[in-house]
Amino acid sequence: MGEEIKKIMHVVRTAPHGTIYPYEGLEMVLIMAAYEQEISMTFIGDGVYCLKKDQDTSKLAIKGFMKTLGVLEDYDVEKLFVDRISLEERGLTEEDLYVAVEVLESPAIGKLMAQQDVIIPH
Amino acid sequence: MLHCINLSPFCGESFTTCLRFAQDQDPILLIQDGVYAAQTGTKFASLVESALAKNPVFALESDLLARGITTTLEGVQVIDYDGFVGLAEKHQVNSWL
Amino acid sequence: MRFGILLKEGPYNHQAADTAYHFVQAALKRGHEVEAVFLYNDGVYNANKLMSPPQDDRHIGKRWSELGANGVEILACIAAAKRRGITEEVLIENATITGLGQLTDIAIRVDRLVTFGD
Question: What keywords were assigned to this record (chain C) (predicted)?
């Protein structure tokens, strides 16, 4: 096995709560972050809703993941990319988001995707 | 990078979203309900035709057959699982679920 | 070439388990090594031995067991499995319940990780 560091991008395209995909996706990211690999997360389409401020899941009696999202930085997952068009289509701006992200144009994200060793959709 | 689309174009934005991120000449493979995009005469025909100018588009034969799709848009290449694996040998796989 | 599979949907309800299976078969036939099929999200239901489809239908659990006997590791994520009641007691033969760390190892080791889901 080579010592080469792998680039693994997690692509979140599902909205929170409606399905478990982004939540279990985040659980996966937190485990992978413990390995010395280059981990990034990219939010596209409804995936950007996962980052929206003011989510309150208390009345749903589900855990939600805003707190966990906040600790991503401590886990060395510092590369959070958001697709600008997806934000705009939803009437959102960077100010509406709960964590610090890098908003990129789709072609720039496409170039990053092309550089990945692994892409995992959530 | 091989882009796999498994959702019907009538059901979600996977195909159009994928096109925003795919690099020139990246192959796009339609599988499962994704193969409905390869049909002739649908409202997505022109979208697929414009994609073909930039990206080779493939459709999985067994999924076409299962859905009674006997004619596909010109330029769409029909492949079997052996061909699917062949594409995955040449490219990393990006599944647009 | 070394392949890994990530399967995110349960059997029968969605085509993902079938597509993943046919992909694995084709990869093996082309001489590749398929290291593992990792079951995540509802994909862990693929490892439930209590499934009992009609006789004239494919038995998806048995398919995975057979692949497991032939050297493809069938792995169910423990966190996803616990949530859904998939335990050692109901686990199909030749499958293992394991952690996401193992998926990470697979992702690092293989040449291609291919995801099937919805």
Answer: Cytoplasm, Transferase
Q: What is the pLDDT of residues B28-71, one digit of tens each?
A: 999 999 999 999 999 999 999 999 999 999 999 999 999 999 99
The C-alpha R_g of chain A, in whole angstroms, comes to 14
Q: How far apart are the first and last CA of chain A?
A: 27
**Structural domain B2-96, CATH architecture:** 3-Layer(aba) Sandwich (3.40)
Q: Which residue of chain B comes nearest to C24, CA vs CA?
A: B85
- Cβ of residue C99 closer than 8 Å to a chain A Cβ: yes
Number of domains in chain A: 1
Chain-chain contact of A119 with B93 (C-beta, under 8 angstroms): yes
| Residue C48 in tokens | 């439930």
Give the ipTM: 0.97
Q: How many CB atoms lie within 10 A of CB B10?
A: 11
Rounded Cα distance between B96 and C15, Å, is 15
CA distance A47 to B37: 23
Q: Taking CB atoms and an 8 Å cutoff, what residues of chain A touch C99?
A: 31
Write out the CATH class of domain C2-116: alpha beta
Compute the distance between CA of residue C59 and CA of residue C53 in angstroms, rounded to an integer.
6
Helices (H), B42-80: 45-52, 61-66
Q: What is the domain range of residue A107?
A: 7-121
Top residue of B81, B84, B92 to mutate, by most chain C CBs within 10 Å, is B81
Structure confidence by residue, pLDDT tens digits, A64-110: 777 788 788 777 777 999 999 999 999 999 999 999 999 999 999 99
